[in-house]
Amino acid sequence: GNHIVYLIHGHGSPKFVLNKIERSLNKSGFKTLNYGYNSLYVELDELGRLLYDNILNSGYDSISFVTHSMGAIVVRSMLQYYDESKKQPVLFRMVMIAPPNKGAEIADVYSRSAFTKWIMGPNIELLKTDSSSYVNKLPVPRSSEVAVIAGMKGTEKGYNHRIKGDNDGRLKPERTTLGIEKEVAVFHDEHTMMTQNKKAIAMIVEFMKYGYFITKVKN
User: What is the SS3 assignment for 76?
Assistant: First the structure.
């Protein structure tokens, strides 16, 4: 049918970081939309609503997502507005790169100071790791096929020493999963660099095509 892959960037990050992934998907015959939004000033509830409106008016029968970082949370926020009784696109597959699905330790760090909270905008507070935080109350994409690509350093300390335990610079790999994933791959790679990782990109294309990874991670 009529299918498109939306690429959704993360917090404080320009959409062009996903260009390399987009080119690989295009080469494999996928139609794509690299979706830009204002991650620093617009709150997640509103970002979800804007994405929902965009999808509803897109004219596609089915939509898949490749998200980086907070992009996954924008999609989960969008699910709040998804209404099965409406004629709307089927949400088919989703690959989340370094998603703070259970919050991000870096958000805990930044939320402690009024100054960094102000610099980082309204969403940093919403991405905290405590069980009552916004991100931990959002819907889970149960009807889609989901894969997660996470990062870590493979050392006790991780990339960011302000976070206890191994991490990708922003969050721990165990914060990325929701328990519904068909595939989970963990790379020795940093939070932002994962979007450029050739092997990770190959795996994204594989999941979009087949619903599983063929390439294996050997760290």
Answer: helix
Residue 62 bridge partners (DSSP) = 3, 90
CB 130 within 8 A of CB 103: yes
**Residue with the two structure tokens 């519904």:** 180
Neighbours of 104 (CB within 10 A): 30
Q: Of 154, 155, 144, 157, nearest to 183 (Cα)?
A: 144
The CA distances from residue 136 to 22, 80, 99, 122, 184, in Å, are 29, 13, 12, 16, 19
63-85 burial, b for 16+ CB within 10 Å, e for fewer? bbbbbbbbbbbbbbbbbebbeee
Query: Could you read off the pLDDT of 108-118 as tens digits, one per residue?
Result: 988 888 877 77
- At 1 the pLDDT is 61
Per-residue tokens: 72 = 């996954």
d(CA 212, CA 208): 8
